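Same chain as my last thread, 229 residues:
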Amino acid sequence: MCDAIQYLISLSAGIHGWNYVTLFFSLQADCPSSAWVQFQDHCYIFIQAVTAESIEDARSQCTDHGADLISIHNEEENTFILDSLKKQWKGPEDILLGMFYDTDDASFKWFDNSNMTFDKWTDQNDDEDLVDTCGFLHTKTGEWKKGNCAVSSAEGTLCKAANKQILISTLVIASTVTLTALGAIIWFLYRRHSDSAFTTAFSVAPRSPYDDGCVLVVAEENECGVQFD
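reply #2:
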């Protein structure tokens, strides 16, 4: 029984290990599905199903997909996003950017902790109060503008993730499913073995060490001994 379980474990590990290797190389070049769009070494997805009432809601939608809110680092990426929103995603006029205003440093920062190396603000007024201020990408002009995070509703959420980030999330899910299935197989075999042992113990009746012929001979000898006496 133990040998059979060990064999199943090693077989499952070998099969799924090969699947993970295949999955690793496939995700290095492509995004998980056609809903995602690839640009350089990142994947992008636009979520239209649910309207986010706050930047926290929008970010939760991204993290549920193993991603984070969009960050933009050069003119090429900004142009790519605009083209994808117009041609594939059919997004609204304003898209929420994954940034927040850090009052300690008096500067905007990306939620994904990447460096703020690029911007396209339409207004550069340094005198305005930027507490609870979010950034939005205007899809018609490609410029960025500022808005209140508390009152602005984002009609769709644009998310971004590195290929390896999506890979890790996928492998975690696949590992969980594999271990659950393997545990179910082992439990099934254990119960089957236990039920079989229980049935065998009660189905075999105790037998005499002598067969019927031996018992008959012994009985006749005893009878003759009594008559002789």
